[in-house]
Amino acid sequence: MADLSPISWWRRFLALPNDSRLKTLGVAFLVALVSAITVSATSVTLKPRQQAHIEAARAANLAAMIATLPGLADILRQTGAETLETVLVDLRTGQIDGNYDATSYDFLAAQTDPAQGTALLPEDDLAGIGQRPHLAPVYLLRGVDGLALVVLPVYGKGYQSMIRAYLALEGDLNTVAALSIYEQGETPGLGSRITDPGWQALWSGKQAADASGEIIISVVRGSAATASEVDGITGATRSSTGVANLVHFWLGADGYGGFLARLKTGDL
């Protein structure tokens, strides 16, 4: 009667010549099996720790983002903003989309993925971005008196590069709290001056729209004369105009306009 003991089977397997095809395949299978089990066990064991690191990194990145916004610390103190909520907005409808994890959504990848965006007609593409993602993240800061700040990720074409920034609106959803440009590749010493803290600070307190809701905020040559105008940068007209265009676009109907309108009326 054949000996079916696992120990006996294992001894016979080990006794096979090293150049045996059966032994080679058997060893390869066992190595693969052990490796797969080890990787799976490690993944399951470390998942809570990995998730904690991811959450900590997100919190640190958001804290760093808020810290870069000119004057935002003062606004936070004045408004008493205490809690932060990250939501994903469907720019096609202006509604909050709860089907995705807002904190893990890759907004940068969506900007160039045709499957995740809508192509823009040239006459509608004031920001020069070609296509607009279907979804975009928005950061809502709330205080004791309700909504204190709304932080919008915005981007658009400058003179030589894509300009990326965060635009913060006060609780009235019309007054610019701050503008922070964190990425650009404009001409050094000229267009790159759009990142000067002094120029970015000029945006604070500006009115984005008029009484009818039309977006009127703009950059002008020379000195600003109204509450919706920002001083242009001498020698960097096209770069500073690019910033104005991207702000105008993202506050408009093709950007966050529908969401801001719903947020203002409480229809969310």
Distance between the termini: 76 Å
Q: Number of helical runs? A: 7
What's the shape? elongated
The total tally of domains equals 2
Radius of gyration: 27 Å
Structural class: alpha+beta
The strand order across the widest sheet is: 2-1-5-6-7-8
Could you characterize what this model shows?
The chain is of the alpha+beta class. The chain folds into 2 domains: about 5-60; about 70-265, no CATH class. About 35% of the residues lie in helices and about 20% in strands. The protein is built from 7 helices and 10 strands. The strands form 3 sheets. A 6-stranded antiparallel β-sheet has the order 2-1-5-6-7-8. Strand 1 and strand 2 form a beta hairpin. The mean pLDDT is about 85.
Characteristic terms for this protein:
268 residues; alpha+beta; 2 domains; two-stranded antiparallel ribbon; 10 strands; 37% helix
